[in-house]
Amino acid sequence: MSVPPHQRQVSLRGASAREITRDALLEKVSHQRELRSYLRRAAAAALFIQRVWRRYSELKKVSVQLREEWEELIDRHKSSMTAKWISDRVLRPFLFFITPRPWFYQKDDLQMVNSASCCFTILLSSINSSDPEKNFCLLSVGAQEERSTWQYQAKKLITLCFAILAECNFSKLGGATEKTVQLTALTMRLSISLTDSKTWKALISENLREADVPVRKLIAFLASERSSTYSCIRRYMTNLNTNKQTEKPIAPTDDRLLITASAVTLALRPFNLKDIEGDGYDMRRAYVEYVVYILTIPYLFRCLPSLLLPAVCHPSVLQPCLSILRTSEAEIFEEISRLQSSEKEALFAHKIPYPAWLLANIINLPTDSGHMTADFDCQLYIQAVNCTSSNLLKHLETNKESVDEIINDVKLSYVDLLKPVHQQWHLTKLLSLSKGGNSLIDVIQFYYYMLQFFCVLNPVIGSMSILNVLSFNPEFVVKLWISLECSIFGANGQSTGGIKNCSRGVTSQTRQNKGFKDTKWSNMLQKIKGKSFETDETNLTSCSPVADVASSQDEFEMWDVEAVKKEISKELLCSLHLFCAVYGHLLLVLDDIEFYEKQVPFTLDQQRKIASTLNTFVYNSFAQTGSQANKLLTNVTTRCLHLLYERDCRHRFCPDSLWLAPGRNDRIPIAAAARLHEAASMQGADSSCASSVLTTVPHVFPFEERVQIFREFVKLDKATRRISEPGQIEIVVRRDQIVEDGYRQLSHLGSRLKSSLHVSFVSECGLPEAGLDYGGLSKEFLTDVLKAAFNPEFGLFTQTSTSDSNLIPCMSARILPNGMEMLEFLGQIVGKAMYEGILLDYSFSLVFVQKLLGRYSFLDELSTLDSELYRNLMHLKHFDGDASELCLDFTITEELCGKMIVHELRPGGTNVPVTSENKLQYVHDMADFKLNRQILPFSNAFYRGLSDLISPSWLSLFNANEFNQLLSGGKQDFDVDDLRTNTKYTGGYSDSSRAVKLFWEVIRGFNPKERCLLLKFVTSCSRAPLLGFKYLQPSFTIHKVACDVPLWATIGGQDVDRLPSASTCYNTLKLPTYKRASTLRSKLLYAISSNTGFELS
Can you give the pLDDT at residue 347? Predict the structure, then answer.
């Protein structure tokens, strides 16, 4: 009978019951089933524990009883023990009640120590007995049953002996007696005797071959994994190493030496056994065990006594291990990883990874006192080091936090172990083997891995020792490039088409010039004086592809290296990385005489190949994805490329097409590149291809395009400021106090100086000058401020002693009132001029500009600052005599306001004389002081002001020479047609006016110097805008000045007598209406040569 749904269900038990769902019921049943299973397992585990405990308890009771009976038996039969009796009545019960557990050095187990010592003493006495009946080892050549029993007991004894050795720790003896050390010594003596039939005194010569069989079996067991031989020796050596570094040894030195020598001898037993594999035993496992457990012991070659090292370092021991390391790489390093995880509390396990100890031991064991072990396979050595280094670097990459945990002292101590790697004899030895291509590749990989590993341990100076050895070995640098060149360009060097052909004319001409002694030395002297080589400039222009097809597609293809655009192999990656690191290091100290004249280590032809290869590779690394798959390789190639590019900027050896070639086809539009770069800069990272290329290799964009990008940056910034900070800055300045008034009113504005500037002048008479500022007065203000401040008499800037007389901050500026603040203000003024596109007729010293661009200056740049000092330093660098006779020290004396101030080039430099050994360091320290340290405070002050208006990322597009061009304009001449196209006419003039036509006719007849004087007369700058007169602000203007000439004067042939004048603030030439070209020419030349403007009006 069904219950109506509206009625409540009532349980017959007297209580309401909820209906349980099917899922809940199944879950409840499953839970109960798991509970019952758990109870069954818990009961089974309890029964198992009870069985184990009962067995242990009973065995312990039996062992104690058996040991007591055994001791009584030994006491009764000490004098009458046969070999058979020893085997049955001594060893059999002894091996039962003795267990390999850490009881040997505990106070309450000294009775067990005594028992073990007694047994081992009996065995040694038996082995040393000349009576065949009493010699235990002769059982090995007895009946079959005796042989089997002896083999079994010998293996048990060997296992027990090494278990005792593993627990031998001299630093943990505590209050134990000498019996503990004697026990370990006895075990080693016994193990040596059991594994050497020559120590069996009762063995006759007829049984030697028969006895050799069980001994070989025992040694084979020694080499097997079941014996745990090498793991026990490792524990002992690790404890020995710990004790050696922490405490003075308690045990006598003789016992320590005996135990250690015996352990090493037993470890090497399998290596000295010939044809053991012919007996069916696999020695491979012994080699693996030796590598895993022995060669990863920290400081192995230091903790071993010196008399044992020749045996451990012998080729018959090391070479099979290194060979198995190469062939079983994955298996060995997996076991090493497991070993490191299991030995968490072992010394150095939590600091230096075990593969690093393997590397240190492989490097040090075959090398000693500046030479390699005789008859050692160096090729195998190189391959083993490469294999270990590769796996070590992988380990460090996946465990980066473990490197940070290593204490610096431990790092330095470990790096010191790798000293042979950065010694010249080691490199020479390896290079002597690299006659074939494969061997050289192995050597390259060897130092590539070493370089990587040293950088990981010490990112700042870790690789310095390696780079010093490699870069100052000309043979290695040349071999490295030849190998790289063959991989990239092919065996004949022709894979890139015309690179070699293009360079042939340059090289042959250079070689020809070097054949003339007078030309060579004159060029060298010119270089020392800071001038460029005429021969090299001639070469660059006479190189037929550059001269004839300067802008053709073929020439660009010559320098675009296709081979490095593809995915490169591991071997090429290693070669390229190592070459760039080594050659980049060498370029730091390679002076221009060596680079251009002597052409070491490479000819200029090779230098161009190197530059084109790196240029293409770096551009392609950034242009494809904007991020680098191998960041380390990209960083090191970029650094080397920059060093070559900066040297080319200072003294040309490459055509422009070389630097422009990679980006000739796929450069994005200028406006888009500027916007992407600005967006990436605002995000704090280069997130796009274009921004990465602009930041890293801007030289792949032509200079004119980079100038347009710069102007686009300014345009975008102005548009942003018009929205966020509208308004203008109004100032009033006195003409006779223009610098001081400008400083007082503008220096505190910072980036607000980007706003429009309106200037009102006060004459020298104190009266306000009439006129409205529509841009001309502010330009006049900026140019006049800089004209006054850059005057050497003002005390802030001076001119270099070289022929170009560029501007550089005066050292006395720091003692002037507000001197450094004034330099910062001048940086703002220069930045304002650049921001507004106003050209200045000044150029800064390249050394000073390098600091503004955040770049380091090197030795040869000193020629642009102080040619006399540069000449003296170069003389010292190449001085063949004893440098100590020059009586120099590591100091420099500076004259400041009549006082002589001595600066130390290094701490304690006053007491460090210059010798032939350290003269190179002195030369570079002196150059570093003059080029970087001395000028840095002044450049920093100027930079702070400049960066208020010009972003550093904008300036990073240019080199030092280009910065000066950006500041002061283009070449020392201009295109008359371009000027005429972009000229405006006022006052009634037009392009068809007679006087205007005469003007352009006269200008075309001027020489370049006269045209520059005219441009300076009108615009206050002698150079044209970089992008042409279209970008001159305000535009070049010719204003008509009407002059009435009497009729009789005109008939008589007279012309206008008035001189032309100019208004530089508006870039306006006020030109009278001349009738004849000769008059216009003479009047114009007179005016532009008089350094006047308004006064002629």
Answer: 47
The secondary element (H helix, E strand) that includes residue 1038 is strand 1037-1041
Token pair of 1046 as six digits: 């009497």
- Secondary structure of residue 39 in the 3-state scheme: helix
Strand arrangement, sheet containing 1061-1063: 984-986, 1037-1041, 1068-1072, 1061-1063
Residues β-bridged to residue 912? none
CB atoms within 10 A of CB 125: 15
Q: Burial, 578: exposed, middle or buried (Cβ in 10 Å; 0-12, 13-18, 19+)? A: buried
- Determine the average pLDDT of the residues in 355-359: 93
Mean pLDDT throughout 661-670? 79
pLDDT of residue 103: 45
CB contact at 8 A, 604 and 509: no
In tens, the pLDDT along 592-616 reads 989 999 999 999 999 999 999 999 9
Terminus-to-terminus CA distance in the chain, angstroms?
A: 128
pTM score, two decimals? 0.80
pLDDT of residue 437: 57
Nearest Cα residue to 1038 out of 969, 1089, 992 = 992
Residues with a catalytic annotation lie at 1065
SS (H, E, C) 187-250: HHHHHHHHCCHHHCCCCCHHHHHHHHHHHHHHHHHHHCHHHCHHHHHHHHHHHHHHHHHHCCCC
3-class secondary-structure state, position 1055: coil
Q: How far is CA 1024 from the centre of its chain?
A: 43
Residues 6+ apart with CB under 8 A from 232: 162, 163, 165, 166
Q: Which string of DSSP letters, residue by residue, matches 570-605?
A: HHHHHHHHHHHHHHHHHHTT--HIIIIII--SS-HH
Residue 281 token pair: 């035993």
Per residue in 227-240, pLDDT (tens digit) is: 889 999 998 888 77
Closest Cα partner for 787 from 744, 746, 735, 730? 735
Q: How many CB atoms lie within 10 A of CB 346?
A: 19
Angle between helices 378-398 and 424-433 (to 10 degrees): 120
Structure confidence at residue 115 (pLDDT): 85
How far is Cα 637 from Cα 456, in angstroms, rounded to an integer?
18
Dihedral (Cα; 401, 405, 410, 411), 10-degree rounding: 30
**Nearest-angstrom CA–CA distance, 236 and 533:** 69
pLDDT of residue 174: 54
> How far is CA 990 from its chain centroid?
63
Answer yes or no: are the C-beta atoms of 699 and 618 closer than 8 Å: no
Residues 6+ apart with CB under 8 A from 622: 628, 634, 689, 692, 693, 696, 697
The SS3 assignment for 730 reads strand
Residue that wins the pLDDT comparison between 684 and 339 = 339
pLDDT at 561 > cutoff 50 = yes
What φ, ψ does residue 440 adopt, rounded to 5°? -65, -40
Query: Please, are residues 1029 and 997 in contact by the beta-carbon 8 Å criterion?
Result: no
